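Re: folding output
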Amino acid sequence: MPASRPFPLSELWRDQIGLLLESTGDGICGIDMDGKCIYANRAAADMLGYEPAHMLGHNMHDLMHHTHADGSHYSIDSCPIFKAFWQGMPCRIDTDVLWRSDGTSFPAEYSSHPIIDQGVVRGAVVTFIDISVRRREQDLLQ
């Protein structure tokens, strides 16, 4: 006879996924079709200088990807993160920067992939890491 569970499997699974997402060192954000944050884990919030709850409902391009490293405006229309769900074009990039709430930036490696539910794109999942240390080490080697 199977062991009894204190709550239905779906709740157990949801809790397990939540623990996984909160336990990784990679920033993870969910973005809806309007580009608004529907989820941000602690690592994402810490790297960007926000509380996770503050990010919810805000346009992620405006929060973290609005400007190129050289200071020029980064058009949302050319944003690879948004192209993942607007055009179905997943990406993995390590030659860009993301912006913190205090106005500073950091070199980042990020990926953006469409969230597909029953054949319909519902948004994107974005993962990212700060690659400042990697960049410094590469510069030292050259």
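--- second protein (sequence, then structure) ---
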Amino acid sequence: NAETLRILNEKIKNREIEKFYLCIVHGRPTPPAGTLTGYIFKDAAKNQVYVRKESEKGAKTAITKYNTMDTRGSLSLVECELLTGRTHQIRAQMASAGHPLLGDGKYGREKQNKAYGESSQALYSYRLRFAFKSDASLLNYLKDRAFSVQYVDFVEKYFPGVHFH
């Protein structure tokens, strides 16, 4: 209903809903865990974004926490938490850090992606946590609850046996 949607939109705006993603990237992020902070500028005509280290007109702050869960060969399984929600944020920031997503045709490395036969990015929203800091009215029952998927196909393909729940 309208009240539920209003509450959810408020909680998203106030960053009281935590969103976690799994992705496979080329290489080994250094350090293995950290925070990527930059400014994202969107080129609407190309439907692409660019990451800048310094702010510029029209750019928005982008913050992504990441943690390398495993590395096998030249690929790493990474968990990302969005602290901001910008268009293509994870894809652009990981590529800007030198670790584009496996299969990403827009921000990735075509030659490496072809070697793996992947044509779509290895990125999946797998966990949501309701970290309410203020009253959520009829949604209070969700406070501190988290919901995770149990299976992600690209994780099973490249990192079998890794648990991420």
